[in-house]
Automatic annotation (TrEMBL):
This is ABC transporter substrate-binding protein. One of its GO terms (biological process) is peptide transport. Residues 1-20 form the signal peptide. Keywords: Signal. It comes from Promicromonospora soli.
Length: 569
């Protein structure tokens, strides 16, 4: 979101899929005219993907965001993974390289997995427990392991351990034989199967991937391998002949290949999809731009409009270490003054988003519906905001700096915030940051300004545990890859996080995450703005289009995608 995703350790913005959002069960997609999105693809052909920006990293220990996580599904495998978007429950975690989900000890501290037979890397080398252990231990490397944080937070490790290249063996992961792997945890974590579905749990041959080796190269374990990579321009995938479909119940892998065209202007992507000429009949992309939406009402396009409901929360983080924003009354005043209706309209209207008053979106387990800062029609309560500013001694307002991506739709959101806060005397100056470095910048506390607009998506949608702790646990404020943009470090919040994490009943824990959501927003460290929705225009020859909350931050899950006619285009 996920970082998902638009999440903590995102190093570069990816496709507009980072803004497309969805949720729900298999086949949870809709169209204006029912364009046959879910038909089973034929064998063969090449799927085209049109993108604005490059992927963050090919190395899954480094990358951790919605667009690239989805790409990883094509080339990498883990012990467990998210069910395909076409599954009855696409939010379910299922076995992948492992024969089954983990066997857990009575004390919850030891998890055991056994590998399937016939697993190989591209090139034919076998995947054994040693390669699984090696790949996972890369997450502890301080320079390489900047992606998903869950492995390091949950698996026990010696103090000062820095991965296989610097420290060597990780004794808390045991490999008694080639097919068995045993994990020892710091504390019981009943959702450990989901932790091992994170992309940085990918196996690699022992000794590989040091330094920058995987910046432009990969060692595939999935159905496709890298045929060509021109950074900022093209990625081509071809079949991995060492992949055995008998071992893989998740990836249909019907196309012969995939071609990603990178660096396209979003408006150009829209024009190509609308025209649908040549190979673009086989193309998919992220969200249609707001300015293009009215054109989709034409009869010849309506049958191709694909809509997904939202799973990702767009919010404004308020840096609680900054002057004025360290006063809860000021943060609450900002929460009252925000005009969510205008923000939604600036983002393309209700077709592309719904106003949000909670951190947890409705599609994530544990969501509790509440609004601590209500206003008529969601336009903001200026009177309530001004009263709080008066109490804080800021009747004349103040000036703050808002970090924002240098994209038209993002700037429109920021300008809506400007206009709303100007009504209570708060002057908002915009600091435009290039999309490719935006998340790296706002995720570095030393470079943060007063506030930033970003988003968060679930790493696994069956639990709110991937929303609240990364954003609000004060003990996880990192020098780089920081998700706690508010830099809030509240003992009561930290304590509640620990208590809920220790609960073995996941349903009961999710209910408590919803309660904690409300408790946190009483302190107003962030301002929820909207839940983004997806509106896409796939090529007329593309099918197998299903959403995935876990794997694709609500966008199209690549694992079922293919072509109706492989000879077309």
């Amino acid at each position: 979101m996920k970082h998902h995703r638009t999440g903590a350790a995102v190093i570069a913005a990816v496709t507009t899929l980072a803004l497309a959002a969805c949720g729900g069960g298999g086949g949870q997609n809709s169209s204006s005219g029912g364009g046959g999105f879910t038909a089973e693809p034929a064998e063969g052909g090449t799927v085209q993907v049109l993108q604005n920006a490059d992927f963050s990293y090919l190395d899954p220990a480094r990358g951790w965001d919605g667009g690239v996580n989805n790409f990883y599904r094509l080339v990498y495998r883990q012990l467990t993974t998210s069910a395909p978007g076409s599954a009855e429950d696409p939010n379910e975690i299922v076995p992948d390289l492992a024969e089954s989900l983990g066997e857990v000890s009575e004390d919850g501290l030891t998890w055991t997995y056994r590998l399937k037979d016939g697993l190989k890397f591209a090139g034919g080398d076998p995947i054994t427990s040693a390669e699984v252990k090696f790949g996972i231990s890369r997450a502890w490397d301080p320079e390489i392991g900047i992606g998903s944080p869950y492995l390091k937070q949950v698996i026990d490790a010696p103090e000062g351990y820095e991965g296989p290249y610097k420290t060597g063996d990780l004794p808390t992961i045991e490999t008694p034989d080639d097919k068995t792997i045993v994990f020892h945890l710091i504390k019981p974590f009943p959702e450990f199967d989901a932790v091992l579905a994170q992309v940085n749990a990918t196996p690699f041959p022992e000794g590989s991937g040091a330094g920058d080796e995987f910046i432009h190269e990969i060692i595939a374990s999935g159905p496709y391998k890298l045929a060509e990579y021109v950074p900022g321009s093209t990625i081509k995938l071809e079949r991995n002949e060492s992949w055995d479909p008998e071992t893989d119940e998740v990836r249909a892998a019907k196309p012969d290949g995939w071609e990603f065209t990178i660096g396209l202007d979003p408006a150009t992507i829209d024009e190509r999809l609308i025209a649908g000429q040549g190979a673009d009949v086989n193309a998919i992309a992220g969200n249609i731009q707001p300015a293009t939406l009215p054109r989709l009402q034409t009869p010849q396009l309506q049958d191709r409009v694909l809509e997904f409901p939202g799973i990702c929360t767009t919010y404004m983080g308020l840096n609680t270490t900054k002057k004025h924003l360290d006063d809860v009354r000021v943060r609450q005043a900002i929460s009252y003054a925000i005009d969510r209706t205008t923000i939604v309209n600036a983002s393309g209207g209700t077709q592309l988003g719904d106003p949000a008053t909670t951190i947890l979106p409705p599609t994530v387990a544990g969501h509790k519906d509440f609004d601590l800062y209500p206003s008529q029609d969601g336009t903001g309560d200026v009177e309530a905001a001004q009263k709080l500013l008066d109490e804080a001694g800021l009747s004349d307002g103040f000036t703050m700096t808002l970090d924002i991506r240098s994209q038209e739709s993002m700037q429109a959101q920021a300008e809506a915030v400007q206009q709303a806060l100007e009504r209570v005397g708060i002057t908002v100056e915009l600091n435009l940051i290039d999309t490719s470095t935006y998340y790296e910048t706002i995720g570095t506390p030393s470079q943060q300004n007063d506030a930033a607009i970003t988003g968060w998506c679930p790493d696994w949608a069956s639990s709110a545990a991937t929303f609240i702790p990364p954003l609000f646990d004060g003990r996880n404020i990192y020098e780089k890859g920081n998700g706690n943009l508010a830099q809030i470090n509240d003992p009561e919040i930290n304590s509640r996080i620990d208590e809920i994490k220790a609960m073995t009943d996941i349903d009961a824990a999710n209910e408590q995450w919803g309660e904690l959501d409300e408790q946190i927003l009483e302190l107003a460290p962030v301002v929820p703005l909207m839940v983004a929705k997806g509106v896409m225009l796939p090529g007329e020859n593309v099918t197998g289009l299903f959403s995935s909350a876990n794997a694709a931050t609500g966008g199209i899950d690549y694992v079922a995608v293919g072509l109706k006619d492989p000879e077309k285009g």
